[in-house]
Amino acid sequence: MAADVPNRPMSPDELATWVGSSRRFMKAKSRQDGFVLEKLSPRLVRFMPSDIGAWLANSSTTEVA
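RE: above sequence
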């Protein structure tokens, strides 16, 4: 799934839309799971693709039959 991650930094809104969740959830998960929210300025933040890919790989669940 990490290969599907866009190859550019994403804003919290872009990431939330891409993942299918809320911006608030994504910011909370970034703090909880430790993936980097790059602060370009106090109000401008971006999620890095490598961190998103690693988070998705570690967060994936297995299907139960």
